[in-house]
Design goal:
Mean pLDDT: 76
Number of strands: 8
Largest sheet: 4 strands, mixed
Structural class: alpha+beta
Low-confidence stretches: 1-124
Order of helices and strands: HHHEEHHHEHEEEHHHHHHHHEEH
Strand order of the largest sheet: 3-4-6-5
Shape: globular
Helix content: 25-40%
Radius of gyration: 27 Å
Length: about 450
């Protein structure tokens, strides 16, 4: 298949007008307007190569955020789009905290903190230093991803080379044959994975699940993808899941129906936009490439190192999801922890705080053996955009957001790690002082009645 083959993006079938003619379509707000915003301006989509990692300069312009209208023609020529501001989590907890003295949520320009005693004012006193939100802008890879990938590729090469040597000397058994056939097996597995949703699922198109298609299209535009990945809804049977994959030059996203329901207006469409942005981020970061999957085949069989590589890739995809819809991150974590009906009732700060307060050997071991970061650590990384997510050790400090991904230390937080006592221990109850009066008094009924 020709790599340059381009799919035809569609418009909202419910809108008879051309949304690209609207002045609002080129504004920063419209560029990141969320799951059900107006169609993005096609003239502002970056015409970059296939599956790049977006750089901050790709989304910058001198007059971004100033209210000055820009020249759409020059933007189309340079391949840039209006700067997409990274907003903070507009949760009810944050809105309530503003009344208690928190700074107004908004841009993370350090100039907003000048003259505030060395840092932003926060309940409990000034903070010594402002921490720039390095992971609130254009999506960045987790710093451990490439070193771990190189290690896994080298291990895969040694294993495959050893199998070749054994086959040349005539020592061929089932395991050696399996290793030699890995490229063919992966090719057929990817082909089946691509064919299954095409014949068993429902495709998102401009006329079928158009709002879901729009989420995928907007994420692809923000990440600089040249083509919109195919997207399918498959029967979830109660499972909350989604994944991204590819075959040949095709890339696609599959969303389970129980997760896709969350995009309905009665629930949390921003959470769905975050999760879909996460999956499209796997494509943009190159995680679903055939050659990458061949090279990292040993990842599934390497203890500690393999799972650490997988977790670093998930953190990278989370960075993409945050960039696509920052306000959907709390709902996305609540959805993954409590399901589609209870997700909106989750206190995101309390969930993220537990990454610091809930410690111990076995909680550390659960994360070490997991292919995905444990949910509390993942929530903490999405809240604190000043640093990358923790791979091996729990975050050491709880924080609170002050706008645009910047944070300040929170101070002591309730841990809820001790059980509430409802009754004294049995031995204390038996040793209670004084006689216990019965129905006939302390001495019982008299013999003479």
């Amino acid at each position: 298949m020709d790599e340059r083959t381009e799919q035809n993006p569609g418009k909202d079938p419910n809108d008879g007008s051309d949304s690209t003619d609207s002045p609002a379509a080129s504004s920063p707000e419209a560029a990141r307007g969320g799951a059900f915003s107006d169609e993005p301006n096609e003239s502002t989509m970056p015409a970059t190569g296939v599956f790049p990692v977006v750089q901050p300069g790709d989304y910058a312009r001198p007059d971004a955020g100033t209210g000055t209208p820009s020249d759409d023609a020059s933007e189309a020529a340079t391949g840039t789009i209006p700067a997409i501001p990274a907003g903070d989590f507009p949760t009810e907890q944050h809105r309530a905290a503003q009344a208690a003295g928190m700074p107004q949520l908004g841009a993370h320009d350090p100039a907003m903190y000048q003259g505030l005693g060395g840092g932003p004012q926060y309940p409990g006193g000034p903070v010594p230093a402002y921490q720039p939100p390095a992971y609130a802008g254009a999506p960045r890879r987790h710093p451990w991803e490439i070193p771990l990938l190189v290690l896994v590729i080298l291990t895969t090469a040694v294993i495959y080379g050893g199998a070749l040597v054994l086959s040349l000397v005539g020592l061929i058994d089932t395991y050696v044959l399996f290793i030699l056939l890995v490229p063919i097996l992966v090719f057929f597995a990817r082909g089946l994975n691509w064919a299954t949703p095409r014949v068993q699922g429902i495709q998102m198109t401009p006329t079928q699940f158009p709002e879901g298609y729009r989420i995928v299209r907007e994420a692809a535009a923000r990440y600089g993808l040249r083509e919109v990945p195919d997207a399918f809804v498959v029967l979830g049977n109660g499972q909350i899941n989604a994944f991204a994959s590819g075959h040949g030059f095709r890339r696609f996203v599959v969303v389970y129906s129980d997760l896709f329901e969350v995009g309905g207006k009665a629930r949390d469409p921003e959470a769905l936009a975050y999760i879909v942005g996460h999956e499209v981020g796997h494509i943009a970061a190159g995680h679903v490439s055939y050659w990458r999957q061949i090279g990292s085949f040993a990842m599934s069989y390497l203890p500690v190192i393999g799972s650490a590589l997988s977790r670093s890739q998930e953190y990278t995809a989370d960075n993409y999801g945050y960039f696509n819809q920052p306000s959907g991150a709390p709902g996305g974590m609540g959805l993954l922890g409590a399901g589609k009906y209870l997700g909106k009732g989750v206190d995101f700060d309390q969930l993220a705080d537990r990454a610091t307060t809930d410690r111990g050997f076995f909680t550390w071991l659960v994360n070490l053996l997991s292919s995905h970061p444990v949910l509390t650590w993942r929530a903490a990384a999405l809240r604190n955009r000043t640093k990358s997510g923790s791979l091996f050790f729990a975050p050491g400090q709880t924080v609170r957001g002050i706008g645009g991904g910047a944070v300040v230390p929170s101070g002591p937080v309730p841990s809820f790690d001790t059980q509430e006592t409802l009754a004294p221990p049995p031995d204390q109850a038996l040793a209670a002082p004084g006689p216990h009066p019965g129905p006939f008094g302390p001495q019982g009924p008299s013999a003479g009645g």
